[in-house]
Amino acid sequence: MTPTFLLIAGRTSRQGTSLNDSKFGAEYLEETRTLLLHAEDLKQLGLQSGQRIRVRSAWGDAEVIAQVDKRGELPRGVVFIAYGEVSSRLMGGDTHGTGMPDSKGIEVVIEPGPVAPGPPADDLNSSEQGS
Amino acid sequence: MSTSAESLRVIENATCTFCGCVCDDMVLKVQGDRIVEAKNACVLGKAWFLNHHPENRPLATIEGKPVSLDEAVERAAQILVQARYPVVYGLSDTTCEAQRIAVAIADWIGACVDTTTSVCHGPSGMAFQGVGEVTCSLGEVKNRADLVIFWGCNPAESHPRHMTRYSTMPRGLFVPKGRKDRTVVLVDVRRTKTAPAADIFLAIKPRKDFEALWALRAIVKGMEVDERIEEETGLSMAQLKDLAQRMKSCKFGVLFFGMGLSMTRGKHLNVEAALALARDLNQFTKFYIKPMRGHGNVTGADNVVSWQTGYPFGVNLARGYPRFNPGEYTTADLLARGEADAALIIASDPLANFSQPAREHLRRIPYIALDPKETPTTRHATVAFTTAVYGINVAGTVYRMDDVPIRLRPALPSPYPSDEEVLRRIERRVRQLLGHPSSVHP
Ligand code: SF4
Q1: Which of A64, B116, B218, B269 gives A35 a disulfide partner, CB atoms 3.0 to 4.6 angstroms apart?
Q2: Span B248-270, mean pLDDT?
Q3: Ligand 1, atom 4: nearest CA belongs to which residue?
């Protein structure tokens, strides 16, 4: 059975500083497309830091780069991504009557990404990559 | 010459509007059309000021093609008056002066008016209405707080000067030794960069904030709590009892909470639990609670929308009087359910931040976007306006996260109009089209 992880999306310094430059800049895109995992979780999934992986929630999926949580911030079973287009894609539209979709603590599964770079998931993505 | 030494200007007491700390002690050095130094700014503030450069974008576009301001205003007004269920959204990164014009437009056209509060501390706004907020200013925290708790927030990365300027480090009237006179506690799922700045780090299990807060309420009141609370929340009975004791015995305690509470399952109920705990503690000592607000003027947006409509966000004006219903009149829902048929988006980027169904719907409807920078939202907008940056180019009022209004001191002129100016022009044209010649905002 594929293990389920809890995804937390949040702010990071680098996401904050790079968005001042441009949301289409390489730094912002890299920061918001990197998924942090606990070293043991990474090992158990048979993944390497720097590898392309696919994150899937009940509402969407996205391709990201796996990165080991070097600072030891995360407990086992919790993965982290900086707020951005990818984290939004994994959120559901339902807000349970609050106006706020579940943005932290989303259940996700993680799979190895394609070996060769695949086509971008949607046109928004492609326009971002084009600049 | 823009680069000559003579043209160096210094702006004292300028304000950084990048985050809700709204630090108003910036010393900016300006050379030509660039800010070359931002003294006192944190890493985020420096990026905010030093990356400010003249944009090379048209004043306005319609469907991506450059147009004059007049043409863009005309098309924007047409879209808004023709819509049957429009929404006015964003507003947290602009001045209060612009916010009130946006509310006026929403009123004329019978729109829903909603701010980015609905997707950050909207649930907190609901909880305030349910429980109330034992509130204080950051100045009081600086001068009095001897117990500072951060719950589900990471000021080291989100509000880098919060601790140094207001909450943990500064020496205050009743805490003369500054950090030494305070105990700092962090409760979070992750051992974030804030953890080293805390005396106590409590690693809570994800999505168990409500349970831990409710157990603390019971312990504070001297009630028995089931031992299985540790298994449930990840916090041991000893940790919970120690925290409860510290909260009861401090002289002036404050709990700052972030989106770890408001964005996680339970949302407003998590925040209600925290507010109720703070209220309960006032039977024993002085205890306060404040949300950590993200955007520079999101607190102003709550204030302006509240004084104009009676509610802070998620307000429907279609019947000519305000109705408040988060989940129904909030933008994430109006878009995800495919209900809104046009939108006016000011200083925010829903096309990057909203859920997939909400974004798909936004791309299907005509909408107007005002933003100083190019974003996914401005790229897909039917009508896009490039506007001047508040705080850097534009004067006005913003509210710090503790509801203290602060006046902005701009450093540089901009070739672009302010949000307020564009919104005034749209409002004027909307009124004309609707046959209401006189303005409520002279
Ligand atoms: S803490 Fe916030 S307001 Fe203060 S300088 Fe940093 S980004 Fe600007």
Answers
A1: A64
A2: 93
A3: B23
User: Rounded distance, CA B326 to CA B181, Å?
Assistant: 41
**Ligand 1, residues B159, B168, B293: which to mutate, most atoms within 8 A of Cβ?**
B159
Give the tokens for residue A51: 């590898």
**What is the DSSP pairing of strand A78-82 with strand A34-37?**
antiparallel
Ligand 1 centroid from CA B358, angstroms: 31
Provide the 3-class DSSP secondary structure of residue B67.
Answer: strand
Cβ–Cβ gap B264/A105 under 8 Å: yes
Range of the domain at B65: 60-119+296-434
Q: B10 pLDDT exceeds 50? A: yes
How far is C-alpha B167 from the chain's CA centre?
19
Residue B3 lies in a domain: no
- For B16-95, where are the alpha helices, taking DSSP H only? 43-50, 69-82
Residue B55 belongs to some domain of the structure: no
Indicate which CATH number applies to the domain containing B110.
3.40.50.740
For residue A106, give the nearest of A68, A42, A55 by alpha carbon: A55
Please tell us whether the domain made up of A4-117 is placed in CATH 2.40.40.20: yes
Contacts of A89 in chain B (CB under 8 A): 356
Residue type for position B55: E
Residues B43 and B74 in one domain: no
User: At CA B102, angle to CA B98 and CA B103, rounded to 5?
Assistant: 120
- Whole-number Å distance, alpha carbon B41 to ligand 1 midpoint, is 6
To the nearest whole number, what is the mean pLDDT of chain A?
81
> ipTM, 2 decimals?
0.81
Encoded amino acid at B11, one letter: I
Distance B364 CA to ligand 1 centre (A): 36
> What are the pLDDT digits (tens) for B34-53?
999 999 999 999 999 999 98
Q: How distant is the Cα of A112 from the closest Cα of chain B, in angstroms?
A: 23
**More confident position, B312 or B7:** B312
pLDDT at B436: 85
pLDDT of residue B67: 98
Which segment of A52-66, A112-126, B378-392 scores lowest on mean pLDDT?
Answer: A112-126
Q: Is any ligand 1 atom within 6 A of the Cβ of residue B401? A: no
pLDDT of B149 > 90? The answer is: yes
From chain A, pick out residues whose CB is under 8 angstroms from the CB of B51.
Answer: 20-21
What residues of chain A lie within 8 A of the CB of B119, using their CB? Answer: 99-101, 103
Find out whether the beta carbon of B160 lies less than 6 Å from any atom of ligand 1.
Answer: yes
Backbone angles phi, psi at B163, to 5 degrees: -70, -40
Backbone phi and psi for residue B162, each to the nearest 5 degrees, phi listed first: -55, -50
B147 Cα–ligand 1 center, Å? 23
